[in-house]
Amino acid sequence: MKASIKPKKEGMGLLAIGITATDTEMGKTVVTGALAAALRFRGITPGIFKPVASGCVRRQDGELISTDAEFQMKCAGYPDTLRKEVIPVVLEAALAPAEASRLEGITLQPERMIEGAKACITGHEISVLEGIGGITAPITEDFLVKDYFKALGIPVLIVVKPILGNVNHAVLTSYYCQQHGIPVLGFLVNGWNEETAGDLEKGNLYYYEKLTGLPVLGKLPKMTEEEMNDPRKLALITEQTVELDKILELAKGMRI
């Protein structure tokens, strides 16, 4: 594994990376956890934060929990007591937060979400902040994911999958972000299989870069349950397949 990165606090500033995707189920949670695990085993305690999660599950004691939060906390080495700081609002319905919160009679407050994210950023050398769904997903009726990231002033990494139709979604997502003043670091491919990658998969990589001018900054492979559940193994895989140093350097140039 590579040597630890320990940014100097004096004159360095704080780094924060937003994680968005071309759609839901692209792997934002996996990527967030993978980056958090890699930073953790470089000797850095990463900040992790997601303002709201829907599709959460109830434990036997009735408590509603986010499996996203559980995974990311395990990757980052957080204790259970910090669950509310990682994802402060949990919703049961597997819908966009705007609709899930309406059905459950919960009022979402964008200003509180922004405050929570900023507290995470200012409390850590490097933070990884996962969005919700795609970049235009409605958090409330009038507050979209793009508004959240723009309010934070942080660059985003776009998670993609090497599947048919994803080039179109990747191009539109990157352009939409840039048009709304959100810097884009590049793309991170989730679910890559080097042994079976053919014309479709390799063509996707080519056109992600050619049509946007943005780099592909890593290709996380499909992982076993054992690898996903072992933060050290996940960190090693991330170091081997993701250009983490380059991501951090790019983020430094776009820092808040």
From TrEMBL:
Chief subcellular site?
cytoplasm
UniProt cross-references to InterPro entries, sorted A to Z: DTB_synth_BioD (IPR004472), P-loop_NTPase (IPR027417)
Cofactor names:
Mg(2+)
GO CC terms, sorted: cytosol
Q: Where in the cell is it found?
A: Cytoplasm
Residue sites binding ATP per the record: 68, 130-133
> What EC identifiers does the entry list?
6.3.3.3
Reaction equation(s) it catalyzes: (7R,8S)-8-amino-7-(carboxyamino)nonanoate + ATP = (4R,5S)-dethiobiotin + ADP + phosphate + H(+); (7R,8S)-7,8-diammoniononanoate + CO2 + ATP = (4R,5S)-dethiobiotin + ADP + phosphate + 3 H(+)
Which sites bind Mg(2+)? 29, 68, 130
Q: What protein family does this chain belong to?
A: Belongs to the dethiobiotin synthetase family.
Name listed for the protein in its UniProt record: ATP-dependent dethiobiotin synthetase BioD
